[in-house]
Specification:
The protein is 41% helix and 13% strand. It is an alpha/beta fold. It has two domains: 261 residues, Aspartate Aminotransferase, domain 2 (3-Layer(aba) Sandwich); 131 residues, Aspartate Aminotransferase, domain 1 (Alpha-Beta Complex). The strands form three sheets. A seven-stranded mixed β-sheet has the order 1-9-8-5-4-2-3, sandwiched between helices. Helix 4 links the parallel strand 2 and strand 3. The two termini are 26 Å apart. The structure holds pyridoxal-5'-phosphate (PLP). Pyridoxal-5'-phosphate binds next to helix 3 and helix 4.
């Protein structure tokens, strides 16, 4: 069986994890701080905090901005549930909007129609690693008539004076938009280092900040460090200093810190990310594209355009003119040929919880059409040329069998 996306665990990773274990410091400490600095340097943002997951990062930033009951957050209908679940956790309303036809990203036109005087945040997602139209989103939230709609309830909201943009970049570390790395293109960017992501630490995430004046990104970082550790004004490392036992709790914070064991993995992965990981992933994308572009039934994914470059996270193939049932049959046939594939994603209005609270898939026709014809193929570092051939042949044969070609 060709797996879908196993992590790359080699000697380098194992050695660094062992070194972290032997160092005597296993939770948040020097390796995590180094990891944060390296991410900041890598993506060119102002400051980065490493956390236990992207989900934690998204929720913490909504809470930092004071999002609560009565507020709305604009989210694409086409994403992983984490993007919307965190809005629910805050008691606010996720306002789903439809996506583009060509790529899988949030439609700018749909965002502008969804904004109301209750909108506090827009959370776009770089689906599959392909950057969203960030200039258009940044321009939209700065438009006079949109700013006039914005009602600030907290000091932080007053300071920004407009809708906050939190980019869900769970897929797009290393993607490039107009010459800038994702992480430096808007207010807040949240990365995921979950086991299936491009750069993994098993579990983990990071929040990269580029907050505009008059925000002090360093001060926000200091605040978040305390806020993600129970609101305790001294972390475990600071408390090991001689005689430094007393601490205060400034508010009832969360527990979402990153550990040094996991940062050890992240540091190895980040160092070889551009010059090794992304090169390999691009090679796989290009190989798949070369094969499928010869078939009229294949709609290959957009992953490079004039000023956008993907992070090659998930290869989202679409089959033209098929139904959801035919897609499911093709997937079953691919699995029968010992190749693991996936669907990214089931749009959120299709899922029980979101249906129950009133969302209707029929309101998002583009998301449904893209979903119903989509099959995600295996992309991982150790995938061999031979395995790529097995994958493409399994797809071609399964499409032929299903459509009687
Ligand atoms: C994986 C993923 C997340 C959540 O990441 P975690 O680190 O597992 O919390 C959020 N959004 C999208 C689009 C994802 O694919």
């Amino acid at each position: 069986m060709i797996p879908f996306s196993p992590p790359r665990i080699d000697k380098k990773i194992i050695d660094e994890v062992v070194a972290a274990l032997k160092s005597g410091w296993i939770t948040t400490g020097p390796r995590t701080m180094k990891f944060e600095k390296e991410i900041t340097k890598y993506c060119g943002c102002k400051k980065t905090i490493a956390l236990s997951s992207a989900t934690a990062g998204l929720e913490i930033m909504l809470r930092w901005f004071g999002v609560k009951e009565g507020d709305e957050v604009v989210v694409p209908a086409y994403t992983y549930c984490a993007t919307a679940n965190v809005v629910i956790h805050c008691g606010a309303k996720p306002v789903f909007v439809d996506i583009n036809r060509d790529d899988f990203n949030i439609s700018i036109e749909a965002i502008s129609q969804a904004i109301t005087e209750r909108t506090k945040v827009i959370m776009p997602v770089d689906l599959g690693g392909f950057p969203v139209d960030m200039d258009e989103i940044n321009e939209l939230v700065n438009k006079k008539e949109i700013k006039r709609l914005f009602h600030a309830h907290t000091d932080i909201q007053r300071m920004l004076g407009r809708i906050l943009v939190i980019l869900d970049a769970a897929h797009s570390l290393g993607a490039v938009y107009k010459g800038k790395k994702v992480g430096s293109t808007t207010d807040i960017t949240v990365f995921s280092f979950h086991a299936v992501k491009n750069l993994t630490t098993a579990e983990g995430g990071a929040v990269s900040m580029c907050l505009p004046e008059p925000f002090d990104n360093n001060a926000v970082y200091d605040y978040l460090n305390v806020y993600t550790l129970h609101g305790q004004d001294k972390d475990a490392l600071a408390k090991t200093k001689k005689g430094s036992w007393r601490y205060d709790v400034t508010e009832a914070g969360y527990k979402a810190n990153m550990t040094d064991i996991l940062s050890a993995i992240g540091l190895v992965e980040l160092k070889r990310y551009d010059n090794d990981t992304l090169i390999k992933r691009k090679e796989i994308f290009d190989t798949y594209n070369e094969v499928f572009k010869k078939y009229s039934w294949a709609q290959t994914p957009v992953y490079e355009s004039g000023f956008k470059k993907t992070s090659y996270h998930v290869y989202m193939l679409r089959i033209r003119n098929i139904t959801e049932m035919q897609r499911d049959e093709i997937i079953q046939r691919i699995f029968d040929k010992d190749v693991a594939v996936n669907v990214h994603f089931q749009p959120l209005p299709m899922l029980s919880f979101y249906k129950r609270i009133g969302y209707n898939m029929a309101d998002f026709p583009v998301a449904f059409d893209n979903y119903s014809r989509e099959i995600t193929l295996p992309v991982f570092y150790d995938l061999t040329k031979e395995q790529m051939k097995t994958v493409t042949e399994a797809v071609i044969n399964s499409v032929n069998e299903t459509l009687g070609l």
